[in-house]
Amino acid sequence: MNFRVHRIAVPVTPDWVVPRPFVHDVFNFQLTYEKIMSLYDVTAGYLKLAEFCFAHMALDRETMVIDLVDENGNVWNCSLQFSETPYADFKIGGGWERLVQARRIKEGACVVVGAPGVGMNLTLFFCVIRR
After folding, report:
1. Can you give the residue ranges of the TF-B3 domain (predicted)?
2. Nearest to residue 111, comparing CAs of 24, 8, 20?
C-alpha cells in the first residue's frame, strides 16, 4: 500500500522537536457525522452516506474522487458516487475497502467523519471509535 501524509498532519516545528501524530480536533470541522458500521459498509467495499444533513452539506453530486484522512494522517484515495435509486445516497468506494481491511474495521464499529467546511469538500477526515 502507498500512503501519503496529509500536509496539515505535520506541523511546522524546530528540528529538535519531533512532530506529534495527527489528532482530530472537533473544533476544526464545521460538520461532523457519526455512523455505526453496518455489515454492508464493511463487506461491500462502500461506505454509504444518506443524502441528507451531513452528506448534503459536505459533498457535491458531481465530485467523483475524495480523500479520506485518518487520525494518523494517512490519506486514502477513494471514489465517490451519487445515486438516486432506490433512494438518494453517496457511496465512498475505491480505497474504502483497503482502509477497512488495513484498519480491521468490523460491523458495529463507530466512525466519525468530519468536513472542514460547508460545500464541495475534496477531503474528509475520519476516526474509528472502537467499542
Report:
1. 51-130
2. 24
